[in-house]
Amino acid sequence: MEQSFVYVVPLMGIIGLIVMAVKSAWVTKQDAGDSNMSELAGHIAKGAMAFLRAEWKILAYFVVIAAILLAWSGTLVEHSSPVIAVSFVIGAVLSAFAGYLGMNIATKANVRTTQAAKTSLKDALNVSFTGGSVMGIGVAGLAVLGMGSLFIVFYNVFVVSTGGDVNGAAMATALEVLAGFSLGAESIALFARVGGGIYTKAADVGADLVGKVEAGIPEDDVRNPATIADNVGDNVGDVAGMGADLFGSYVATILASMVLGREIVSNDNFGGIAPVLLPLVIAGMGLLFSIISTFFVKISKDTDSVQAALNKGNWISILLTVGASYFLIDYMLPEGELVLSRGGSIAFTKMGVFGAVVIGLIVGALMSAVTEYYTAMGKRPVNSIIKQSSTGHATNIIGGLSIGMESTVIPILVLAAGIYGSFLAAGLYGVAIAAAGMMATTAMQLAIDAFGPIADNAGGIAEMSGLPKEVRERTDILDAVGNTTAATGKGFAIASAALTALALFAAYVGLAGINSIDIYKADVLAGLFVGAMIPFIFSSLAIAAVGRAAMDMVNEVRRQFREIPGIMEYKAKPEYEKCVEISTKASIREMVMPGAIALLAPMIVGFAFGPEVLGGLLAGITVSGVLMGIFQNNAGGAWDNAKKSFEKGVEINGKMEFKGSDAHKASVTGDTVGDPFKDTSGPSMNILIKLTSIVALIIAPHISDGGSHTHASKENVDIKKEVTYEDGKKVEKVTVTVNK
Amino acid sequence: MEQSFVYVVPLMGIIGLIVMAVKSAWVTKQDAGDSNMSELAGHIAKGAMAFLRAEWKILAYFVVIAAILLAWSGTLVEHSSPVIAVSFVIGAVLSAFAGYLGMNIATKANVRTTQAAKTSLKDALNVSFTGGSVMGIGVAGLAVLGMGSLFIVFYNVFVVSTGGDVNGAAMATALEVLAGFSLGAESIALFARVGGGIYTKAADVGADLVGKVEAGIPEDDVRNPATIADNVGDNVGDVAGMGADLFGSYVATILASMVLGREIVSNDNFGGIAPVLLPLVIAGMGLLFSIISTFFVKISKDTDSVQAALNKGNWISILLTVGASYFLIDYMLPEGELVLSRGGSIAFTKMGVFGAVVIGLIVGALMSAVTEYYTAMGKRPVNSIIKQSSTGHATNIIGGLSIGMESTVIPILVLAAGIYGSFLAAGLYGVAIAAAGMMATTAMQLAIDAFGPIADNAGGIAEMSGLPKEVRERTDILDAVGNTTAATGKGFAIASAALTALALFAAYVGLAGINSIDIYKADVLAGLFVGAMIPFIFSSLAIAAVGRAAMDMVNEVRRQFREIPGIMEYKAKPEYEKCVEISTKASIREMVMPGAIALLAPMIVGFAFGPEVLGGLLAGITVSGVLMGIFQNNAGGAWDNAKKSFEKGVEINGKMEFKGSDAHKASVTGDTVGDPFKDTSGPSMNILIKLTSIVALIIAPHISDGGSHTHASKENVDIKKEVTYEDGKKVEKVTVTVNK
C-alpha cells in the first residue's frame, strides 16, 4: 500500500514548479525602468538567448548521436534496455530548459533590480533574490519532477510488470535506464559550464584590455562594444553554467544513492524499496523547505545586512531539512541492521543513515566557509596577496598561487573525514546519502548563487544608463554580497561535485561487477596516474581557450573603435552583436576538445583495459580534479578581492595605497590571471569529475569482467569462511566460488 | 662459490672513488687565475661551506634523534633490529659527504673553467665537465660502496650466520636494516634539496630585485652584496641539492629492487640471492660504464657542439649499460620461470627482467626529451609564451601556467606505459628493476647536471672580474648548454623519483603484510585524497618561503647600499657574508615545516589508520607529486627561456622585440614567478614522494595488520585453485588459507 508513497515525489516537483511560476510572474510584473534601461537590458537578453540558441544547435546534434549510440548499446547486453536513450534525451532537454528558465528570469530581474534600487535597497534585494529563487526552485523542481516521474515509469515497466526482484537485476535495469537522465543532464552541464566559462571570460578580459586599459573608459561603459557581451557572460557563465552544474550534481547524487540503495535488502513498508526511494524523497523535501526559507530572505531597512538575510534563509533551509530528515528516515527505513555487502561491508542502522545526511550538510557548510575565508577581503590570505603586490607583478602572482595551493588543505581534510565518517555511519550507502543530504537544499543554494550575477548585471545597467549615484551605491552593496556568495557557491559546487563523483564511483564498482580497485596492481596504478593527469590537460585547454578567445575579442573591439567613427562621442552605437557573436562562436568551438576528453577518456580506458583500470582512472580524475578545482577557484577569488581592496585603499608597510598605484597595477595582473582560473577552468573541474564518473557508470555493464552482465557481486560470488586452530595458530579458510 | 661475487660490488665502488680522486686532483692542479678571480671564487667557496656547516649542525641533531628512535623501534618487533640506526647514520653521513665532495669540486672547477676559457672553449669544457664528473662519479661511487659493503655485512650477520632462508624472514631483516641507509640518504636529500632550493632562489630573487631593478647594475656585478650569495646558491641548489636527490633515488631504487627480489625463489648459482644481488651489480656496472663514457665528452675545436659532445657521452653510457645488462642478467639469473607472487602475480623469465631494464632507460630518455621540448627556445611552447608576453604580464603568466599543465600529458602517459610494460615484463620486480635500469647511469647523468652550475659560476666570475668579451662568450656557450641540461636533468630527476617511489611502494606493501590497496574502501580513498593534497601544501610552503626569504634579502641589500658609502663607486666592498648568512638562516628555518610534513604524515596515518590507508596516502602523494613536479618544473623552465629569447630579439606579430620592451618586462615577471617553481617547489616534489615512501617502508613492520611482523604474504597464505564446469558454466573455486 505504502508503495504509492512514490507518487509524492513528482508531486513535490510540481509544487516547486508552481511556486516558481508565481514568483516568475511577480518579477515580470515589476517596473522595467525607462526606455534606455530597457534597451540595454534587451541587448543583454538578446545576447544571452543568442548564445543559448547557438549552444542548443550543437547540442541537438550531440544529443541525437549520443541517443542513437545509447539505444544501440542498450540492445547489446542482457538486462540493458534501449529505453535509456529516452531518459537521456529527457535529462538533456530538462537541463537545457532549466538553463533557459534561469537565463530568462535573470535577464528580466537584472533591469527590474536596477529600477527597484531607485526606491530602496530592500526592494532591490527583493527583486534580485526572487529572480534567483526562480532559478533555484525551477532547477530543483525540474530535477525532482523528472527523476520522480521517470522512476515511477521505469519501476513499473521493469520491476512491477515483470515481477522482478527489487534487489535484483530487474531493479538494476530500471536504475540503469534512469542513469541516462543523469548522463543527459551532465552532458548539457559540460557545455553550459565549460562553454559558458570561456564565453564570460573572453568577453570580460577582452572588454577590459581594450576598454579600460587602451581606451581609458570605465567598466560597463556603453561605448565599449564588448560591454554587452561581458554582461551576457555573467548570465551565461554564472547563471546557466552554475545552474546546469548543480542540476547535474543534484540528479547524480540521487541516482547514485538509489543504485547503492538497491543492494540493501530492506524489510520495510515500501515493498522493500525504501533505501531506493529515500534519496528522492529527501530531495523533494529539501525543495519544499528551500521554498519556505526563501521567504525569510528579507531586510526591513537599507542599513540591514544583506549577507545576514541570505545566511538566515540558508540556515533555516538546512535546519529544517535536518529535522525533517530525522523523522523521514525513521518513518521510511526499517528497524534493525541494514547491510550493503560491498566495499568493506558494514552493518548499519537507520540512524546511521540520518548521521550520513548530517555529515553531508556539515561538509557542504565547512567547504563554503573555508572558501569564504580564503577569498574574503580583510582576512589573512587576501591581505598577504595585497602585501606582496607592493613588490611587483611577480610576487603578487607567487602569493596568489601559494594561497591557492594552501587553500586545499582544510577542504581535503574535511572531505576525507566526511568520506570516512559517512562510511562508518552507513557504509557506501552513507557516502552517497551524505552527498544527497548536502544537495537537499540545492534550490536555496542556487537561489543565493543566481542572485549574484543578477545584482552584478543590475549594477552594470545602472552604470550604462548613467543613473544617480545612490542607485549605483545600492546595487554595489548587492554586488559585493554577490561576490562573496559566488565564492562560497563555488566551494559548495566543488564539494557537491566531489561527493557526487564518489557516490557515482561507489555505484560504478557495483555495476561493473568488480569488488575492489586495487592500486597495487600495475595497470590500475597506471590508470590512476593517467586519470590524475586529465584535470591538468583539461585546465590547460580551458585556460588557453580563454586566451585565444580574448585575443579575438580584443581585435574586434579595436576594429570597431577604428572603423566606426563617433563611438567615443556617443554619436554612433557600437556593434554589440558582433562581440556577442565572437564570444558565442569561440565558446562553442573551444569546448569541443575538453568535452571530447571528458566523454572519451573513460570509454577508451574502460573498453581497452577493463573495469578495474577504469576505476583507477576515475579515482585519479576525482582526486586531482578536486584539488585543481579548489586551487584554481580560491587563487582566482583571492586575487580578485586583493584587487578590489585597492578601491577603498589598503595599508602596505604603513603606507596607504589606492587605485592607480604600482601595487594596484600588480593586483590587476593577478586578477586577470585569476579570471580564467576561477570562472573557467576551476569550475569546469566539477563537470569533468562528475561526467567521467557517469560515463563509467553507463558503460559499466558493457565492460564488466568476463563481458557478461554482472549486476551485483553478491549474486555471483559465494563466500564461505571456516576458522580452525592448528598448533595454537589461527587458520582462516575462505572458500570463494565465482560464477562467471 | 659464486656467492663471493657479492664482493665485486664494493670493489666497483672503490674503483669509482679512485677515478674520482684522480680527476679531482687534475682539476685542482689547473690554473685558478689571477688574485682577483681567486678572491671571488674564495668568497663563493667560503659561502658554500658556510651553508654546509650550518646545515650539518641542524642535521646532526636530527640524525642523532632519528637514530635513537630507529634503534628503539628496532627492538620492538620480531625480526627487526636496532642495527638499522647504524645504517641510517652511515647513509646520512655518506649523503652529506657526497654533497661536500660536489660543492668542493664545483667551487674549485668554476674559477678554473673561467681561466681555461681564456685559452679555448675546448679547455673550458674539459675543466667544467671533469668537475661535474667528479661529482657524478663520487656520488655513485659512495652509493655503490656503501650499499655493497653494508649488504655484505648484514647478509652475513642476519642470514649466513643464522642459517636463515634467503627468501624468508632472515633476509627480510637484512634488507630492512639496509633500508636505514636509504632513509638516511633521503633525509639529507630533503634538507639539501628543499633548503638548497630556498637558498638559491632567495638569493637570486633578492639580488635581481634590488640590483637589477632598483640600482640598475648588471647581473653578477661585484657591487651587489647579494651576488656572492647568488653564486653560492647555484652550488647549494643545483650541485648539492641535485646530487643528494639523485644519490637518494639511486640508493632507494637499488633497495626496493632488492626487497622485491628477496621474494623470488631463484634456483641460481649465487645461493639463491641473484635477484637480490642483481640491482647492486647493475648499479656498479653502470658506474664503470659511466666512467668510461666521460672520456668521450670532448670537442676538438671551438666551433664544435658542446651539446653534441654531452649527448655522445650520455648515449655511450646508456648503450654500454644496455648491452652489458643483457649478458649480466643472462649470467646471473636462472633459466625457466621466476615468480613474484604479489600484486597480481605473474611468471616471467630472465629476458623479461632485461626488458624491464630497457624500459627504464627508455622512460628516462623520453622524460628528458619531453622536458627539453617544453622548455627549449625556438619550440612551440616557449614561442607561445613569448607571443602572449606582448599583451602583458597577465597573459604571459596564463600562457606559462597553461604550458606547464599541458606538459604533464606525455610524461604521464610514458610513465603509465612504463609501469604497465615493466610489470608485464617481470611483475613488480620489473617495475623496480626498470627504475634501477634508469638509474644505472646516474654517474653520467649527474656529471652532465653538475657541469651546468659550474659553467654558470664560471660565467659569473668572468663577469665579476671584468674579463675580456671572448672569455665571457665562451662561458656563455657553456652556460646555455647548462641551461638545457638543467631542464633535461630535472626531467630525469622527476622520472627517477617517480619510478623510485613506485618501486618503494611495491616493496612497502610486501613488508606491511597486506596484499592490496583497495581504494574502493572508504578509509583508503580518504587516504588517497589527503595524500594528493600534500604536494599542494608542500609547494605552497616552499614558494611562500622563497618569497619571505627574498624579502629579507631585499632589505639587507637596500641597507648596505644605504649605510656603506662608496659601494657604487667600487671604493668599498659590500658585506657579502651578511647576505650569505641571511640565505643560509632562511633556508634552514624554512625547511623545517615541509620536512616535518614529509616525515610525519606517513607515520601519523600509518599508525593511526593502518597499512592499507597509508598505501592510499603514498599513492596520492606520488601521483599528485609527480604531476605538480612536472607542471612546476616545465612552467618555470619555459618562462625562463621565453625571457632569455628576448636577449637575441624575438618576432611578435611581425615586429621585432628586444630587451627593455614591454613584452620583455612581462617575460621577466614570468621568469620571476618561475624561479621558485623550477628551482624550489618543483624539484622538492622528488624528495617528498621518495621520502614518504621510505618512511612508510621503514615503519611497515610496525604497522602491519594484526600488529605482528608479517614479512611476506606468500609465507602466510596458501592459495589453491580448482576449476570445474557445472551446467556449462565455469566455476572457479579458490581456497585461501591464511596463517595469522
Name the descriptors:
20 helices; disordered C terminus; two-stranded antiparallel sheet; globular; mainly alpha; homodimer; 740 residues; 6 strands
Structure notes:
2 copies of one chain form a homodimer. With about 750 residues, chain A is mostly helical. Chain A has one domain. Helix content of chain A is about 75%, strand content about 5%. Chain A has a two-stranded antiparallel sheet. In chain A, strand 1 (about 340) and strand 2 (about 345-350) form a beta hairpin. The longest helix of chain A is centred in the N-terminal third of the chain and has 47 residues, at about 170-215. Chain A is globular. The model of chain A is unreliable at about 705-720 and about 730-740 (pLDDT under 50). Chains A and B meet through helix 11, helix 12, helix 14, helix 15 and helix 18 of A and helix 11, helix 12, helix 14, helix 15 and helix 18 of B. Chains A, B: InterPro entries: PPase-energised_H-pump.
